[in-house]
Amino acid sequence: MQVLAVISMPLSLVIFVMYLTIFGLGTWLGSFINKAVYRIPLGLPLLRGRSFCPHCGKPIPFYLRIPALSYFWLRGQCARCQEPIAWRYPAVELFTGLLAVILVYYYNYDFTWDMLWIFAVSCTLLTIALIDHDHCIIPNSLVALLVVLAWVRFYWIPEFDGLSYLVGVIAVSGPMIFFHVAFHGFGLGDVKVAVAAGMLLGFPKVLLAIFVALMTGSLGAIYRLVNQYEETYMPFGPYLSLGIFVALIAGDQIISAYLGLIR
Fold first, then answer.
1. CA distance linking residue 195 with residue 43, whole number of Å
2. Of 166, 167, 168, 194, whose CA–CA distance to 180 is shortest?
3. Which of 133, 134, 158, 262 is deepest in the core (most CB within 10 A)?
4. What is the Cα–Cα distance from 91 to 88, expressed in whole angstroms?
């Protein structure tokens, strides 16, 4: 027993270090998402230029750019101008770090293309949701990235069923285009994301994504009415991104459970 304990301790330490590394890489990607959310709508270069404080414009030293930790170390303030830093910055970084750890655990430490693909799609959806929330726009570059990710996955899906994905695209984009043209109920960016959702999820998981988006969007609309928001337009991208994420992570399980209830 003592020999087994000695052997298991290094293994536990290795697993801990692995999770810590994965979490750190995830938070770093979250920091990059924060950078993209701020820079893309303003037309600033994404891969060039140092990070800077949005209040005073001063560059942030590299030793103060540690994801999440720097925020708590500085007590949520800029080190130079003392202006408050939005809590969303560390929240996004911690979320992406935890998501990376959860995916590695779910796939039993097997770093498959499928796992990396889900993480890439999730990060793209998070970027879309935050930009649409802040600016009520969905950049075409991010929609194009979703489409590219969909096409990339088609190459390793065994027995690829193109009809399912074609039906998925038509089933959601058709009604949304109608509401966009007839009632301006959805923005054109929402329609584009819906098309990408059909390509990512196929039928019937894309219906689940739209259902989750409509239900959570309805709750968001009720909240805005109760609190008497002045804006008449409510960004739908965050809810659509959430619906796609739910269908992506647990779509098969939710649909199977639902079909089991009605049979």
1. 25
2. 194
3. 133
4. 5
Residue 204: is the preceding peptide bond cis (ω within 30°)?
Answer: yes
Integer Cα distance of 136 and 145 in angstroms: 19
Q: Per-residue pLDDT tens for 105-137?
A: 888 777 788 889 999 999 999 999 999 999 999
Q: Within the chain, where are the H helices?
A: 2-39, 69-73, 88-106, 113-135, 140-154, 162-183, 188-201, 205-226, 237-262
Please give the distance of CA 75 from its chain centroid, rounded to a whole number: 26
Q: What whole-number distance in Å separates Cα of residue 93 and Cα of residue 28?
A: 7
What is d(CA 105, CA 94) in angstroms, rounded to the nearest whole number?
17
Answer yes or no: are the C-beta atoms of 189 and 132 closer than 8 Å.
yes
* Spatial contact of 229 and 248, defined as CB atoms under 8 Å apart: no
Number of CB atoms found within 10 A of residue 188's CB: 14
CA Rg value for the chain:
21
| Percent of the residues in the chain that have a pLDDT greater than 70, as a whole number | 94
159: tokens are: 């027995």
> By C-alpha distance, which of 52, 68, 49 is closest to 60?
52
Q: Which residue has the tokens 């570059």?
A: 141
Which SS3 state, helix, strand or coil, does residue 227 take? coil
Structure tokens at 26: 């995830």
Confidence at residue 158, expressed as pLDDT on a 0 to 100 scale:
64
Span between the terminal Cα atoms of the chain, in Å: 51
What is the C-alpha to C-alpha distance for residues 181 and 194, in angstroms, rounded to an integer? Answer: 15
Domain boundaries, the chain: 1-106, 112-263
pTM for the complete prediction?
A: 0.89
